[in-house]
Design a protein that fits this description.
The chain is mostly helical. The chain has one domain. The chain contains 5 helices and no strands.
Length: 106
C-alpha cells in the first residue's frame, strides 16, 4: 500500500478520490497498531507440542473466551480487510474521469 500511494504521488495522481471511502478505510487501518501489539507478545511457541504451548497461554481477555492470540487473529484480519479496501477504493475517481490510455501502470 505504501508503494502504491508513493507511486501515485510520483506520477502526480490524486491520492484520495472525491469519495471519502478511501479516507475512511485508511483511517480504519489504524487497527494494525493493536494487532501488532498482540503479535509481538510471542504467545505461540512453535518449538513445543500444542499441549505444552497451550500451558503458556494467558487468561482469556475478551468475553472470558478469547485469549491474546485469538484477539491478534481478529485484529489482523480486520487490518488486512481495511488495507485491501483502501487499495480498492483509491482509484474510484479515475473510472470515468480519465481515458484508459492515460492511466499510468506501475
Amino acid at each position: 500500500m505504501v508503494y502504491y500511494i508513493t507511486m501515485k504521488c510520483i506520477w502526480g495522481e490524486r491520492i484520495f478520490p472525491k469519495a471519502p471511502r478511501a479516507v475512511v478505510f485508511l483511517v480504519l487501518n489504524a487497527v494494525w497498531g493493536p494487532a501488532l501489539y498482540f503479535f509481538v507478545q510471542g504467545l505461540a511457541q512453535w518449538d513445543k507440542t500444542p499441549a505444552e504451548s497451550r500451558e503458556g497461554n494467558r487468561e482469556c481477555l475478551l468475553f472470558d473466551f478469547y485469549d491474546d492470540h485469538d484477539v491478534w487473529h481478529m485484529l489482523s484480519a480486520c487490518g488486512l480487510f481495511f488495507t485491501f479496501m483502501t487499495l480498492l477504493t483509491l482509484d474510484d475517481d479515475i473510472d470515468y474521469n480519465k481515458p484508459r490510455g492515460e492511466i499510468p501502470a506501475f
